[in-house]
Structures are given as C-alpha cells and as structure tokens.
Amino acid sequence: MPAFDLPPAELEKHRPAPDEPADFDAFWRATLGESGRTEPVVSVRPVDNGLRLVDTWDVTFRGFAGDPVRAWYTRPAGDPRPRPAVVEYAGYGRGRGLPHERLTWAAAGYAHLLMDNRGQGDQYGSGGDTPDPHAGAPGGPGPVVRGLLDPHDYHYRRLITDAVRAVAALRSLPGVDRDRVAAVGNSQGGGLALAVAGLVPDLAAAVVSAPLLCGILRALDLTDAGPYGEIATYLSVHRGAEAAARRTLSYVEGVSFARRAAAPAHFGVGLRDTVCPPSGAYAAYNRYGELTGRSPLREIHAYPFNQHEGGDAVHVRRQLSWLADVLAP
Fold first, then answer.
1. So which residues are the catalytic ones?
2. Residue-level pLDDT at 1
3. Fewer CB within 10 A of the end CB, N or C, for the chain?
4. Any signal peptide, and if so, which residues (predicted)?
C-alpha cells in the first residue's frame, strides 16, 4: 500500500479545527462520576503463569457502571518494593489473553496491568474474560458500531470508562508507585491511552501508537479498512443514521481528549497505515495539551514505509528508552 494520506510536510502541520460537542466535558464528568463512587478493585488472585522471573495476579476491578472488568497484573518476581507502573490497553477485537503473552513492560521492571476489553476478545489473540452487559442498544455486531446511535449507549463510552478506572485500580495495587503511572497502547489501545491522558489529570505519561478514534470523520472518508470500515458498512445499510452516528463519535474523538492532556506523550505512526490513517495521529499530536495552559513534553516517530505495524520492535525500543527517562525518580 503506497502512502495515501497527507504528505509528511502537511502531516507535521495538520491541526484540523476542533469539532466537539459543547457538553463534551460535562458528558465525561457525569459518566466518570457515575462509575467512580466505589473502590475500584474487587479481587486480586495469584496465578501460576509458568514463569520464574515475573509474578502474575488475576485482577478484577469495577469499570463502567460498576461492572467487573478482568486484568492481568504482572511484575518482577520477588521484589515487593513500589515500582513505576504501566497500564496497557489491547487492540480492537482482542482480549487480555493469557498471562504470559505481554511481558515487555514487566521485563523492563515495571508493575504492569493489562486490561481486558469488555465484549471483545473473539477476533484474534487468546480470548478475553469480560462480557459487556450493556451491549443491547441498536447498532451492528462489531464493538465500534454497538450503540452507535446514541453517545450514552455507545460501546466506547463504556470501554473508555473502564480504561480510566484501570488507572485507579492499578494505583491501589501493592507495589505500585502511584505518582509514576503511564498509559500505554497501540491501535484501539492507543486511542484508549490517549483518552485516559485527557481524562486523568495526574497521569505521569502516555505512550500512544497508531491510535484508533483520532480524526474519525476524516478516516471514514479515507479508508474502508478495519473498524472504520465497519462504521461505513453500517451506515451503508442504515442510510438515515449518519447524523446520529457523527454526534456519537464526537464524544469519543481522540483529538478532543488530546487537547485536554497534560502528561508527557510519546507517539508512533506508520505513514502507510490504512487501518488508522496517520492524519488522525498527527491531529492529536499537534493539538496535544493545548487546553491545559502548558506545553507538555511530547515527541512523535513516523515510519514512512510501514503500515499499521508502524515501527514494530524498533519503536518499542524507543518507547522503553523514552519512558525510562520520563518516569525516572
């Protein structure tokens, strides 16, 4: 796939005018307020992960509407001292899988919480363990179109709330330095990490690559791949639903969350990515922190010949180096 989005010089300056509802902040304040009245963690149970160098616990915490959300908590074995911590969000259609699948952050010395995606886990990976009991509103079968006609019913209202609550859950676990917690994710996970950066004012860092839900309306005009293609397919059948869908999507637009974020941020993007077009990532990056009255530390790495995989292991190495500096005592 050749480059199909804006040329690199234009991407670096891409700052589309904000298109967000007037009650964006009130919507999220009310949503998080409804789910944040109780202690987040329900249970923490040690599991045999088959490994000697890291320990893992099966965590259940309260997410949207108090629903139980599952997660793996993993950290270097035999050292209970408080550590900087990472909460990681998985990609679209993936669940938390098995406890030995995601070891990079724990191997780097972090306390690591991998959140399950409610109502997902059936498209790739090793499955998930968190149902979505609120998935009955009108919309298509895929997560990105569940409840698409009303922002209060939308799947991502629930998933973003879970992601915020995961930070609170991680901070309440033993062996975590509460002041040094980062949100990390790729693709859908990157979109969730960016939303968390905009909704959790004291987050220590955000590590975002190929973020979904950024520049959503432009992405719908550019690509039929991946989750955006599911939205287009739904609207091709429900021909009168576009206005309602646009309104719902405006409440989960990643650029709006980025504008409110204050944590240092590290971005990665493949310039041939048709799943999450690069103009969305650049729009979020270029407007990052603009409503905070500050200029947060941030950097972006582009991979001109890569698609949705972006910089892959090369980029992970950059993430590790950057986060070690940002979260240093």
1. 187, 273, 308
2. 56
3. C
4. none
